């Protein structure tokens, strides 16, 4: 007698499907809501090194970690990068915890992802999101961004999905000794 539930049905969609195979609704649900990708980044002129800042896009709600105007965001923030499977595979700055990056690399989601935990608060409880850790770019001069360089958005996580303070994502160095430009 055949089992009415196939193995394929038992495998969560983010493991069963590639990024390209996901429906638009599955794609949107894959976002963990961390808000890390909505922080401004600086690129070192000389080395190409990316430095994260805690300066958030003007449309980011710093507590909810959500875009305030997601559907029409490009009218306000033209350089907001729209993620596609191709972009996920080519962008070098996607945070190590980003669900799209994890799936693209053939890795599983962490316990705190809402698709695993069933709770959209766990990404915040695990300390992975940007909740209440950002300042808005509104009214800030570009030259002041260097004072806001931080390493936590690029931190790797340990095997349990906890923030690993010993594994910073880049050599931070002294920001004042570098020449940066803002990248989208
Ligand atoms: S870093 Fe990835 S998972 Fe987190 S908010 Fe951005 S797109 Fe979503
Ligand atoms: S416009 Fe883009 S970068 Fe800004 S908050 Fe919305 S999704 Fe994030």
From TrEMBL:
<dbReference type="InterPro" id="IPR005358">
    <property type="entry name" value="Puta_zinc/iron-chelating_dom"/>
</dbReference>
<feature type="compositionally biased region" description="Acidic residues">
    <location>
        <begin position="155"/>
        <end position="174"/>
    </location>
</feature>
<feature type="compositionally biased region" description="Basic and acidic residues">
    <location>
        <begin position="175"/>
        <end position="184"/>
    </location>
</feature>
<dbReference type="Pfam" id="PF03692">
    <property type="entry name" value="CxxCxxCC"/>
</dbReference>
<dbReference type="InterPro" id="IPR008228">
    <property type="entry name" value="UCP006173"/>
</dbReference>
<feature type="region of interest" description="Disordered">
    <location>
        <begin position="155"/>
        <end position="184"/>
    </location>
</feature>
<protein>
    <recommendedName>
        <fullName>UPF0260 protein LZD57_03310</fullName>
    </recommendedName>
</protein>
<comment type="similarity">
    <text>Belongs to the UPF0260 family.</text>
</comment>
């Amino acid at each position: 007698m055949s089992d009415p539930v196939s193995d394929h049905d038992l495998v969560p969609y983010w493991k069963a499907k590639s990024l390209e195979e996901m429906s638009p609704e599955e794609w949107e649900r894959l976002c963990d809501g961390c808000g890390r990708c909505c922080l401004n980044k600086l690129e070192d002129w000389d080395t190409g090194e990316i430095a994260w800042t805690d300066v958030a896009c003007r449309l980011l709600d710093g507590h909810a970690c959500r875009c305030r105007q997601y559907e029409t965001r490009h009218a306000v923030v033209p350089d907001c990068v729209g993620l596609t499977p191709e972009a996920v595979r080519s962008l070098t700055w996607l945070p190590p915890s980003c669900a799209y990056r994890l799936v693209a690399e053939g890795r599983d989601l962490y316990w705190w992802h809402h698709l695993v935990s069933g709770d959209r608060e766990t990404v915040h409880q695990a300390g992975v999101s940007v909740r209440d850790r950002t300042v808005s770019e509104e009214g800030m001069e570009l030259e002041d961004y260097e004072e806001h360089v931080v390493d936590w958005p690029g931190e790797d996580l340990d095997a349990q999905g906890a923030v690993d303070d010993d594994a910073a994502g880049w050599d931070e160095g002294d920001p004042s000794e570098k020449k940066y430009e803002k990248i989208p």
